[in-house]
Amino acid sequence: MIATRESYGNILIELGKENKDIVVLDADLSKSTKTAGFAKHFPKRFINAGIAEQNLMGMAAGLATTGKIPFASTFAVFATGRAFEIIRNSICYPKLNVKIAATHAGITVGEDGGSHQSIEDIAIMRSLPNMKIIVPADDVETRQAVRAAAHIDGPVYLRLGRLGVPPIFDESHTFTFGKGNVLKDGKDITIIGMGLMISKCLKAAELLKQEGISARVINISTIKPIDEELIIQAAKETKRILTVEEHSVIGGLGSAVCDVLSTHYPVQVVKIGMNDTFGESGKPEELLTKYGLTVENIYDTAQKTVNSKK
Amino acid sequence: MEPMKIYANQLRIHIINMLAAAGSGHPGGALSAADLLIYLYFKEMKIDSEDKDNPDRDRFILSKGHAAPVLYGTLAMKGFFNTSELTNLRKLGSFLQGHPDMLKVPGVEMSTGSLGQGFSASVGVALGGKIDEKSYRIYTLLGDGELQEGIVWEAAMAASHYKLDNLVAIIDNNGLQIDGTNDEVMKVNPLKEKWESFGWNVIEIDGHCFTEIERSFKQAKEVKGRPTAIIAKTSKGKGVSFMENQVGWHGVAPSEVERAKAIEELERNIR
After folding, report:
1. I want to staple A38 with a disulfide (CB 3.0 to 4.6 A). Which of A12, A85, A180, B27 is the partner?
2. Domain at B189, CATH number
């Protein structure tokens, strides 16, 4: 089990060795966002903005105009909320080459409570022209996604978590920007998940199999631009879609899937996520249970969805 | 008459003409900064429109982006594009957007318009210069009302923390903003003490006096280990008597009659 923020910190050091244009910015959270390792290896290319997220993004924009590849790192709730308009006007509008690495996304930041749990960051970032969004599912995918982000020209939002996640992919996996992966084939329903929900989606599919329900599981790690082809194909072949996200059901993965299907191939889409509510303090697993982000709820919801259409 | 004065007056004529053609925009804060921009682009900065991407060039960022006409006029006069384009300001399909867009306008170093953000980006550019050990300098122009934005002080803190002596912030201190004087709307004074307490070298000048402008840039270059703020006392609407120091001329374009009257006055000044 390794948190995607840890994987981010590890790959940053590798990237820093390979490419001298990589600079890393943080807002007094380098131990939590895991940029402290980069800071130690490359002190000259690490900039601590202090507790000032607006200027964190503004400086990153300025650095990008000088040919640098800035990775601006802080908690997701501050990165997208507090600094939104700087990301909009100073990064996305001029299409500058800034990577926003937002850690502690979702409710699994846990005990800090609703003020620190980012459940709307994808919705906010999706609405911005030129912004690309990646939500890696495990260590292997995170390392590849961060590397890919460094090679993409323009703004990229990387959504990372605090909680350790089990491995999904082995080292032979190839992350392709803009492409989802079918992790398990199936014909009765497609479960589309992202981030730390992927392992739960796979377990739910195993349980469904025992009940005679064949569930396809898709990992969508690039939320924008989303893999339309893969989603449409799944809708055509399984008719029913269930989306699972550690994010609000408003504007996140489920909404992105609905945007594709309502235009190209309308089918029933059921969403599991935060139902227009803030989170609260608690242990990550307790919170996931309280808000229905569990194997059991994915299993139940999928079963009901399949049975209702029989 | 010295060439700088002639250029500045010519720039003011461009500003009035392009705003009248656009039918909207911000004359007051564009006219107040004309002398500063002319000096920067024609005397101070190492830039060349024929080699505009040279990594060693000096940079100017207009943080008070609503004063776009003063930047567009200067860039056109400096050869970045044809002056005949200026009257397309704010028109559909024109590259001259209402606020500076770096993807569209040659010579614009940063897209600005949302106040405080250009200054923050300037600090990033200055950091980039330090990391690469380049000798280029960064000049950024802020409005005094703009200083009410919190990001300005975040950026001011960072610039002095990182000892960015390659950065010069110029405050266009005309004292007026949309709803009234700075003191009425939200007191930003005392400016000198504020910037000094944030660790900046501060120089106060008359922003319409070329001798003082020259002296301040020279002094800024000599200061090592900290950034410089030049507080330039200016008159909003400078050069057009009926616009000078009038709050009402912040964001209103001149009518044809007003345009003709302003141009007549500005041309008289050149003769």
Report:
1. A12
2. 3.40.50.970
Q: Is A53 a catalytic residue?
A: yes
Count of CB atoms within 10 A of residue B195's CB? 24
Q: What is the Cα–Cα distance from A185 to A188, expressed in whole angstroms?
A: 10
Q: Which helix (H) or strand (E) holds B140?
A: strand B138-143
Give dist(CA A19, CA B28) in Å, integer: 46
Structural domain for B71, as ranges: 1-269
Q: Cβ contact (<8 Å) for B124 and A54? A: no
Instruction: Provide the number of CB pairs (under 8 Å) joining chain A to chain B.
Output: 107
Phi-psi map region of B237: left, alpha, beta (phi>0 left; psi -120 to 50 alpha): left
Q: Residue A228, by phi and psi: left (phi above 0), alpha (psi -120 to 50) or beta?
A: alpha
Say yes or no: B127 contacts chain A, CB-CB below 8 A.
Answer: yes
pLDDT tens-digit profile of B126-166? 999 999 999 999 999 999 999 999 999 999 999 999 999 99
Contact predicate A273/A246, CB 8 Å: yes
Ordered structural domains, chain A, with CATH: 2-165 (3.40.50.970), 181-307 (3.40.50.920)
User: In this predicted model, what pLDDT tens digit does every residue of B17-57 receive, in sequence order?
Assistant: 999 999 999 999 999 999 999 999 999 999 999 999 999 99
Q: Is B162 on the interface with A (CB under 8 A)?
A: yes
B65/A contact by beta carbon, under 8 A: no
Instruction: Test A52 with B158 for CB contact under 8 angstroms.
Output: yes
What's the whole-number average pLDDT of chain B?
97
In this prediction the pTM is 0.97
Nearest CA-CA distance, residue B113 and chain A, Å: 8
Q: Does any CB of chain B come closer than 8 Å to the CB of residue A90?
A: yes
> pLDDT tens, A102-144?
999 999 999 999 999 999 999 999 999 999 999 999 999 999 9
A54 interfaces chain B, CB cutoff of 8 Å: yes
In chain B, residues with a C-beta closer than 8 Å to the C-beta of A45 are 131
Please give the Cα distance from A85 to B117 (Å, whole number): 9
Q: How many domains does chain B have?
A: 1
Q: ipTM, 2 decimals? A: 0.96
> Are A114 and A280 a contacting pair, CB within 8 Å?
yes
List the single best residue of B57, B120, B136 to mutate versus A (max A Cβ within 10 A). Answer: B120
User: Cβ–Cβ of B157/A94 closer than 8 Å?
Assistant: no
Alpha-carbon distance of A178 to A231, in angstroms, equals 12
